[in-house]
Amino acid sequence: MADERGDRTVRVVRGRAATRDGDQTVTTEMSEYVAETNNPAFRAWTPHRQMAFGRRDAHAEGYERACEAAESRGFPVVERSVGGRAVAYTGRTVAFASAVPIENDRTGLDERYETATTAVIRALRSLGVPARRGEPANSFCPGDHSVQAHGKICGIAQRVRRDVALVSGVVVVADHDAIAAVLEPVYEALDVPFDPGSVGSVARSGGPGDAERVIRALEDAFVGDAERRVTDARERVDN
Question: Per UniProt, which keywords does this protein have (predicted)?
Answer without folding.
Answer: Ligase
